[in-house]
Amino acid sequence: MLVVLLFALIIGLMLIGVPISVALGLSSILFLVVFSDGSLSSIAQTLFSAFSGHYTLLAIPFFILASSFMSTGGVARRIIRFANALVGHFSGGLAIASVVACMMFAALSGSSPATVVAIGTIVIAGMREAGYTKEFAAGIICNAGTLGILIPPSIVMVVYAAATDVSVGRMFLAGVFPGLIAGIMLIMGIFVYAKVKGLPSQPFAGFREIFDAGREAFWGLFLIIIILGGIYGGVFTPTEAAAVAAVYAFFIANFVYRDMGPLATAHGQNNTSFLRKPQSLLTAFFHPDTKNTLFEAGKLTIMLLFIIANALILKHVLTEERIPQIITEAMLAAGLGPIMFLIVVNIILLLGGQFMEPSGLLIIVAPLVFPIAVELGIDPIHLGIIMVVNMEIGMITPPVGLNLFVTAGVAKMSVLNVVKAALPWVCIMFMFLILVTYVPVISTWLPTTLMGPEIITR
Amino acid sequence: MSGSEPDKGFFDTIEETFIALILGIMTLITFANVIARYLFNSNILWALEATVFLFAWLVLIGASYGVKKTFHIGVDAVVNLVPTGVRRIMSVISGLCCIAFAALLLKGSWDYWAPFVGRQAFYETQDLPVPFFLVWLKDVFNEGEAYEKLPRFIPYFVLPLSMALLLLRFVQATIRIFRGEQDLLIAGHDADEVDNPVLTDGKSAAGDAS
Fold first, then answer.
1. ipTM score of the complex?
2. Residues from chain A contacting residue B111 (CB–CB below 8 Å)
3. Residue A148 in 3-state DSSP?
4. Distance from CA of A27 to the nearest CA of B (A)
5. How far A318 CA sits from the closest chain B CA (Å)?
6. pLDDT digits (tens, 9 = 90+) for A432-456
7. DSSP of B27-49, one letter per residue?
């Protein structure tokens, strides 16, 4: 029952306005000092080993950095053009193209809010000009943006892998088909809505435009090939893949797209050619744009990782107290079957997702439910995908949905209006969650085919 | 967000450069290691350990900068519902909780770190070489016996340092809240607030779009 007290303390602290990281950390420290004979110095050690002992987590800052360089370097604009050329001629074409653009950007970025910002800032304005309502545009982007954590690479998957010791590569591969299916379900929803409401379509852009736009967008999209190909081909570890992706994104942004750095020019003009300014190869590293991008990515890393580090302290406390084992025994004794268990997991995550930042929540919940899942014969990769999809829904449902806030900022709407606008599309995500939960093969087929069956070590 | 945001000060510049620099170095070291492996068929032995320690420095030191700039996220649904007076009381209590957190961790960090510089000064890191400008360490801490690797108290020093900084920033923030100069300890979420920290990743993207 002490555990209930612990979680009550965490929630209580959060509600009075304590930062999530401190709420997690302080509650764990107090619990450890008061109810168990843990020492303060062991907590400091846990805090430090959050970084020194979790090499996997190191992928997170690099993925954030890669996506920052890509956004600053103008990849979003090019992806949107490509998506528009591909599907713009359907009814509701611009909205469908936005979803496709979100899916493509998700393949470069591991975060949902980043996807919303990168794509949303451009397409929401575009959709309004084309005669769509602001609410419709915001609702679409808010939902499609969540694909950022489902389509690899994904920060949340990295966190899940770090918390449960499954392979990051497998998780990434497992996200491919669910990501595509979720995107297609959203597109079908828009298509039906567009037919009913008679939404406008654009003239077909022609194959030449598809080719041109595709060639431009290719440099950005090639990133996902580097990441997945590199990990799956055994060329490098996920963390190294992330670092390579960041360096690649830096070069693409500075020297191919040239929308940032020494070769960028004022809006509307052609960017300077590298050949006319070859010294940029050196100056790019010290350019203010580079520093700013590094700094912004660094800020996001700090915010996220400080939460994760404190969640790891809480995890340490829970493990010390053998809470996961106790819960496992209780649940198994209650005769819980796999189907009921998955429902319980979904409910816990949906409720938790309302209040917590996804990565922190995963660090805490994953160790609690993982042993039960293994006992019940549920594939750890499948469980991971279920968790990620739950996090997606948590991001678009109030009161604390990160995507809602970001969309509100991008679309200049109140959070409440975004909530209303997103609601119909959240239903599609719910249907998708049920599909993913009870059809494990969607998640497990690709990793099993490419990397062999998962070996579960206890 | 914070009531009075002075122009970028001297320490802001230092902290911002620190954050950008550490992240950049981490990326380059990891990248260089991949290059070394494939092009030169060798490994940079210390790359992994160095990156991991830099990672800890980045996040732990950065956390105090986050308090200064209020970019740590939290649940603002309740605090935004209550009247201003109640909110201020709640925020001051939150501030005191944060101070307690930082103080407890500072104590823990010190307890953990102090032995490494005292009795256990012979503990070394696994792979990090001793840079030439730190050779003198052996005389001061290890009774003249040379260190083969960087002694452990150097990277671990981030613990007491960052927690002391965190404590300082939380005390300052709480005083600001108490005086009514700052509203909350956590980042705000108002629709018109484009300074939203979760947007940071894309602020640049917004700039690109315009």
1. 0.88
2. 39-41, 44
3. helix
4. 9
5. 19
6. 999 999 999 999 999 988 887 766 6
7. HHHHHHHHHHHHHSS---TTHHH
